[in-house]
Amino acid sequence: MKKQTVAFSRQSTNLFFHILTRCNLRCAHCYINRDQHGSNTLSLDTIKAWLGIFSSKAKDTNLIFLGGEPTLHPDLASAIGIAESMGFKSITIDTNGFLFHNILDKITPNQIDFFSFSLDGVSKRINDAIRGEGCFDAVMSGISRAVEKGFSCSMIYTVSEKNIHEVPKLPELVKDLGISRFFIQVVGMRGETENTDARHQVSKSIWQKTIPKTAEQIAEQGIIVTYPKVFLTHEETFECAANVADNYFIFPNGRVYQCPLCEDFPFHSYEIINNQLMPRPKINEKDLFSLQIPEGCVMNKLIQPGNLSYDDNEFPRYKIACCMLKEELYP
Ligand code: SF4
Ligand code: SF4
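# iron/sulfur cluster complex -> structure
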């Protein structure tokens, strides 16, 4: 088994394209904030024009269609066709599993790289308490139908205080699902939903006791596992992805962020105006990225300081890594 920290790179671009904010669910930890991101559904012409902004570097760009629930968009299949013809390096669809508009019948497995399914509990009880009644069955059935049709599938599990206790049962759950990648995420304190325990991050000791071990057990089954590093020692190098990588989080109201933790604020670096990517005037998120603090990530300190801990001299015991810094395990 090979383990590596995925280095940030400007050579490869990641485009997280929210083509709508509408969703059939109301997950307790949903990161969508309609006050900030609007309620537009982008037309196919607009999707094409906005993809066109990045088409000159499409061959080095990973494109992720998300929402809301992207399969609620009636033209998702056509949008995928357009992205394919522009030559994007990879195309992923992040879905809650309901797979609307018969999307599995409208595209073929060679058009996309992954369907990525969100599941937040190993038991129906925990998953559905977070994501809503019927979601466990919907996601399991969605994975099974997609695998049967030959699509490559992955799973995303967002860890919080509410579901960490089920993490050790994940290797058993994923055993015969037919997925080839597994993503563990840490929940973020953002979005418009209420402050429930599904929004609370777990402590450093619980994270470190649980996550790397479970990730290894999943990888032993031949599945590539990616999980966020979250905590750094003072000896480890901290880097802010916004300074050293090339990520764009696009929302259907035209806002474009470089950092997902900034998404609850009108702090975006860019805005798409008349189908062009325009830099925004100061003050914006870029003004935060260069700040050096002993706690590591500046945005983490501002919006979720509860995951920091200080010694008697009020010095942080560890740094919080960029939320996009990942460990990857290859079977
Ligand atoms: S987290 Fe995703 S699936 Fe859940 S309500 Fe939000 S957009 Fe919908
Ligand atoms: S999460 Fe923190 S370190 Fe990462 S891009 Fe945002 S501000 Fe920078």
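# post-check
The domain at 2-330 is CATH 3.20.20.70 (TIM Barrel).
The pocket of iron/sulfur cluster (ligand 2) is lined by residues 240-242, 259, 261, 289, 297-300, 322-324 (CB under 6 Å).
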